[in-house]
Design goal:
This protein is mainly β. The chain has 5 helices and 19 strands. The protein is elongated. Belongs to the PHAF1 family.
């Protein structure tokens, strides 16, 4: 971070309490949170949080402690968090007078970041900003024409669901030639059949924290109309929790458990619930991680 002509923070210039105080100057005593063991120092529009080791909590007495510039052993705490906010004087710290007027910055014309993707189950996706229609059975050429070059292409080596195809008189081998087009900037994966080269699945990502793919995809702002199921007027979007989905669609029975192991995914397993033409991957906190669309 740069303040005036000086830099602070980073491996070569740690944002210690002494360094912060020397750069930003005197201020009022901060606040010590004894439950969290954190001392917060405030400046107009800016605050620094410093973790205080348990053996030095006596340096911070009460809620408004004296400035702990240095500990008895000569060390000084290092900033663990910096918060920047509107520092207007007519509001409490951290919530200035202009915060209620904050709005999302304008996007360039045609930018798909907030674009709604309307889902027609078993049929197609419709992109509301660009006006593109991507139906099941479309070819890679069709997708390139409508959405442009994919961010990545991923070969699907193994079909892990083939063991569940007992009703198929001619099940395919587990070796799979299917492939994905990855559109990370749209929160979308498109799966093509390796033999026919036609779309067979769409995967829509919500980009919620706590999932293995978090921050790999931009959130896909999909809208699934409940009327596609049972004349419901409610819609399913990325912010719809699983309990709400069940109220709209009804119970679908037991979930399949999907896991990559604790080494690959420290957030734990997810649960996959299937309905006709759609499957939901749900995290333990009840939020939807992905929606998979197919034709059944």
């Amino acid at each position: 971070m740069r303040y005036a002509t000086s830099l602070i923070g980073g491996p070569s210039n740690l944002a210690t309490f002494v360094a912060v105080y020397a750069l930003f100057g005197p201020t009022f005593p901060g606040i010590y949170d004894k439950d969290r063991g954190v001392y917060t120092l405030f400046y107009p529009g800016l605050s620094f949080a410093f973790p205080i080791p348990s053996q030095y909590t006596d340096c911070c007495h009460g809620r408004e402690a004296e400035l702990p510039l240095e500990f008895p052993d000569g060390t000084t705490p290092v900033t663990c968090r910096v918060s920047i906010y509107d520092g207007s004087a007519d509001k409490k710290v951290g919530v200035g007078s202009l915060m209620h007027k904050a709005s999302a910055p304008p996007l360039l014309p045609g930018n798909p970041y907030m674009e709604e993707v309307l889902v027609k189950l078993g049929e197609e996706l419709y992109f509301s900003v660009g006006g593109q229609h991507i139906p099941f059975g479309a070819s890679p050429q069709d997708v390139w024409t409508e959405l442009g070059r994919p961010c990545g292409i991923h070969q699907k080596q193994v079909d892990q669901m083939v063991i569940h195809s007992a009703s198929d008189p001619h099940p395919r081998t587990t070796l799979c030639g299917d492939y994905f087009y990855n559109y990370f900037t749209r929160g979308l994966d498109i799966l093509f059949d390796g033999q026919t080269h036609r779309i067979k699945k769409f995967v829509l990502h919500t980009n919620y924290p706590g999932h293995a793919d978090f921050n790999s995809y931009i959130k896909c702002n999909f809208v699934i109309e409940g009327s596609d199921f049972d004349n419901s007027k409610q819609s399913i979007t990325p912010s719809t929790k699983w309990d709400q989905v069940k109220e709209i669609l009804g119970d679908c029975g037991r979930a399949a458990i999907q896991t990559q192991g604790s080494t690959s995914n420290p957030f734990g397993s997810t649960f996959v619930y299937g309905y006709q033409n759609i499957a939901f991957e749900v995290m333990k906190n009840g939020y939807i991680a992905t929606v998979t669309l197919f034709q059944s």
